[in-house]
Amino acid sequence: MGNHHGHQSTKSESSSAASSHNGSKKNSISRTVSGNDIQEKPSLMLPVEKLAKILEDKSHKQEGVNHGITMQVFIANLFSRYPVFGEKLFNYLHQSSKTKHSYIPTNAFKQQCENYLAIIDDDAVRQRLVKMWAHPSEETSADSLTPEDVTSLLMCTYQISMDHYSEGPQMCLSVHKTLNAVVDSCFHGKKVLSAQYVTHWVEANIPRLLFPLHRFAIHALATAWRTLEEDEPSPAVGKNVFEKIFLNLF
């Protein structure tokens, strides 16, 4: 019995040592990952910092705004070819920043850009884009969309998608007929729908159709500063990169 007890004790000590070693190893791995995250964070923020600085300077020179970014400067330098989308995105960032100014304060702009760049979930992407085109309902005050709103949203994603084919810009002669059919299928004769309903409908029927808008916005916010630093027209930024991005959608 004494030998048996000694064997159990030795086995227990061995198991305890192994457990302690594994625990130490896990803690070590956890600390390493956390350290890497901290080290990588500044490099991820660099594009936003540079973009905010450039747009802040332009807003000051062109519109006399101190420490902020105006809608006109934002659209002209990032979305001059797609002003409707530029306005919707700016208003979304402006609303999210909760500022009382007509412009977005620079620090708030950086924070909202970082938040937008962090959106990777497909459902969140669709929800944000639908929200950009939504407005409070007169009856319920809830975010709602009209057929015209959804048509505008779909037209924006169509234009961006068709403009960035590897073979060059494309055009569909029946685009208006197609978009009207899609919108009619969504609304079924109703004059207004909640943003929540439209988001669910998009997810169920055209789940990937809005992604070009989001990818275009991500690319512009993350890379446009390079071209703006050189004072080149921003629409030409990363054309080859755009082509690769949009080819993956089809």
TrEMBL record:
Residues 1-40 are annotated as: Disordered. Residues 9-27 have a biased composition (Low complexity). It comes from the Eukaryota. This is Uncharacterized protein.
